[in-house]
C-alpha cells in the first residue's frame, strides 16, 4: 500500500488481523517518515505483525538473544553515508560503477567491464527506484501486554512500536542518553502526525 511516495509492505499474522489492519500499520510507518521530512522521497519498507515465538526465533537467530521482545528492525543498509537525517539524498544509483570483478560480468575488447542497467517493464519503475529501508517485525502479544503501562490501546502501542522500528531503520538509536533524547523527540513528532491523520 502506498502513501505519498512511500510503500509499506504489510504482513499481518492471521491471529492479529482483527486487532490491527493494514491501514493502521501504513499510517504509523508513514507518520515516522513524514516526521523525518522525507515527503517526496521514494521509500519502501516492510512491516510484519507476528507473535512472541516468531520474534524470539528471529531475535535468537540474528541477535543471539534467546527471548522475545516488542520490536525488531533489520536495516537494509548500515551506512555511514546515510544516517536517516533530514536532507539526505535517498536516491540509489541505477548503475553499479564499482571496480570489483564479477564472474558474470562482460568485458569489451579492451578488457574493461561493461556496466548494464536492468530494464523493468512499464509501470514498475516507481517501485524499482524506491530506497528499501529494511524490515520491522513486532510482537502483537507484547504490544498488548505493555500497552497499559504507557496508557495506550494495544493497537496504538503496536503503531508506536512500528514508529520506533522505522527510526531504527533510519539510523537512530537509543544506547546513549543524547541519542535516546533525539530518537524520543522524533517518535513524539511522529505520534503527533499519526494523531492528526487518524483524527
Question: What's the short version?
Answer:
By secondary structure, the chain is of the alpha/beta class.
Please give a structural write-up:
With 199 residues, this protein is an alpha/beta fold. Helices cover 40% and strands 16% of the residues. It contains six helices and five strands; from the N terminus they run E-E-H-E-H-E-H-E-H-H-H. It has a five-stranded mixed beta sheet, with helices on both faces. Strand 1 and strand 2 form a beta hairpin. Residues 80-127 have low confidence and may be disordered.
Average the pLDDT over all residues and give the rounded result.
Answer: 79
Distance between the termini: 20 Å
State the helix count.
6
Order of helices and strands: EEHEHEHEHHH
Sheet with most strands: strand arrangement: 1-2-3-5-4
**Largest sheet report:** 5 strands, mixed
Tell me the radius of gyration: 19 Å
Oligomer: single chain
Count of distinct strands: 5
Quickly list its features:
199 residues, alpha/beta, 5-stranded mixed beta sheet, 6 helices, 40% helix, 16% strand
Write the layout of secondary structure elements.
Layout: E1 2-3, E2 6-12, H1 22-35, E3 43-50, H2 52-63, E4 71-75, H3 125-128, E5 131-139, H4 140-150, H5 154-169, H6 177-198
Parallel strand pairs: 2-3, 3-5
Antiparallel strand pairs: 1-2, 4-5
